[in-house]
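Section 3.1: Structural characterization of target chains.
Under the original work plan, the team committed to producing a structural model for every single-chain target entering the pipeline before any wet-lab resources were allocated. The record below documents one such target. The sequence was received from the expression subgroup and is listed exactly as submitted; it comprises 559 residues.
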Amino acid sequence: MSFNYNKNKEHHSQDSFWTSYSDLFLGLSTIFLLLYVTASLRTGTEGLRNQIENQKLSMKVEELEHQLKMYESVKNDYIENQATKDEAQEYQELMDKLTLLQEDAKSEKDRLVQEALENEKKVKALNKYQQMVRNVLNSNKMAKAKIINRDDLIKEQDVEIEGQEQTITELNQDIQSKKQLIAQGENKIKETQAALQKRVNELRYAYKMNKLSKNLFEQKMAQARAENHQKVQQLANVNAQYQAQLQQASAQLGQVQGELSKTQGMLTEKEQEAKYLAGTLSKTKAESQAKMAAMSQGFAAEKAGMQAGFAAEKAGLQQGLAAEKAAAAQKLAAAHAGLMAERQAGAQKVAALQGQLSDTQGQLAKAKAEIEARKMVAGEIQRGFAKAGVKADIDLQTGDVVLDFGQAYFDSDSDRLKKEMKGVLEKAMPIYSKSLFGNPRVSDKISAVEIIGFASPTYQGRFIDPQSSKAEDKVALKYNMDLSYRRANSIFTYMLDQQNVQFDHQKELLSLMKVSGRSFLEVMKVQNRNIASAAEFCKQNDCKKAQRVIIRFSMDTKK
C-alpha cells in the first residue's frame, strides 16, 4: 500500500487554517490576561484604601444606622398617632405598589434564570456534538494509522523471515560441518585401533620367533596399548565436543524454525487480511464505477436538457457574476476596514489598559504613602507625648488620639473644663500641632482636624437605650448627644482663645478644626440592655470608656 502525498498536503493546509485561528485565540488570551492583571491591581489598591478608611466608614455607618432607626421610630409614631387618614391610606398604597414592584422584579429574575439554564443546556448539547465530531475524526485517524502500521508490520516480518531463513541455512551448514568432523574423528579412531592391532601382531610374531624376550615383549605391548589408548581418548573427547556443539546447533535450529513458522503464520494472516481488504476495495471500486456509470448516464440526459437553456441563462449568469464580484469586492473592502478597525480598537484597548494600570499603580503608591505618613505622624505624637508626660491612647495606624484626663474629667451633665483638663490640653495640643504642621512632608496634606466628644449612656440615674422609641428616652438621647457636642466644643473654644494657650501652627490647626458629638455605641459594646439603674449598668459596662475625647486628623491624598 502506497502513501497518499497529495492527501497529506491537503491535511497540512487544513492544519495551517486552524493555526491562524490559534493565533487569534492567543491574542485574545493576552488581552484577557491584561484585564485580569489590571483588575487584580485595582482590587489590591481598593483593599488598602478600604483598610485606611475602615474605621471612618464603620463609624459613619453606625451613625447612619442609628439615625435611620430614629427616623423609622419617628415615622411609625407619626403614622400611628399624628398622620391623617388620607396620609395613612396614601402611605399604605405606596407600600403596596413597592411590594408589587418587588414581586415583578422577582418574576423577571426567575425568567432570566430560566433562560440562563436553557442556554446552559444548549451549550452542553453543542459541546457534546463537537465531542462526537472529534471522536469521528480521531477514529478515522486511528484507522489510517492502523493501515500504515499493518503495512510496516508486513515489511518487518518479511525482513525477519529472511533473517531467520539465513540463520537456518547457516545452522544447517554448521551441523553438516560438525557431522563431517565427527565422522573424521571416528575414522581416525578406527585407523588408530588398526595400527595398534598391527603393532601387536608384529610384536607377537617377533616374540614367537624369539627375537624379543618376554619382558621386552610385555613392555612394548603395554607401551603400544598406552599410546593407542591416549590417542583414542583424545579423539573421543574431540568427538564428544563436536557432538555437544551439534546438539546445541540442532536445538537452536529447532527454535529458529519454530519462530519462522510463527512468523509465517502471522504473515499468512496479514496477507489474508490484505486480500480481504483488497477484495473489499475491489468490490467498493466496482460499486463506485457502477454508480458513476449510472450518474454519467443521468448526467448525459440532464446535459441534453440543459444545453437548450444554457445559452439564454449565460448572459444572466454573467451579469449576476459581475454583480457578485462587485458585491464581493465591497464585502472584502468592508471586511478589511472592519479588521483594521478591530486592530485599532485592540491597540486602543491595550493602551487604555496600560493607562488604567498606571493609574492603579499611582493610586496604590498614594495609599501606601498615606499609610506611611499616618504612621510617621502617630509616631511623632507618641514620642512627643511621652517626653512631655502626657498620657494618651494613640492609634499608630490611623493617628487617632484619645486624651487621658484621668479622674479630672467633665462633671456629670457638665461641659465645663476643669483646671487639670486645661493643663493636659496646654501640654498636648502644641505637640499635636507641631507633629501635623511642623513636618513639611505631611503639613500640606492635612485637610481637617476633628474633635469628637462622647457622653455616657446614662441620664438622671438610669440607662438610656438608643434603640428605644419612648418619648422620654428620645429626650434623654438628644440631651446626651448635645452634651457630647458641647464638651468637644468647650475644648475647641478654649484653644481658640490665644489668651488661654499659644503654640506654633495654632492658626493652621484652628482653621482646619471641626467639632462633633457621637453616640457612646461607637466606643463601647453594651453587654446587657435590660438594666434600669445607671449604677448597675456601669458595674457591668465600662462607662468611663464612653466618656472620652478623640482628636482625629484627615488627609487629602490628591495633594
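Strands lie at 392-394, 401-403, 446-454, 458-459, 462-463, 513-518, 549-555.
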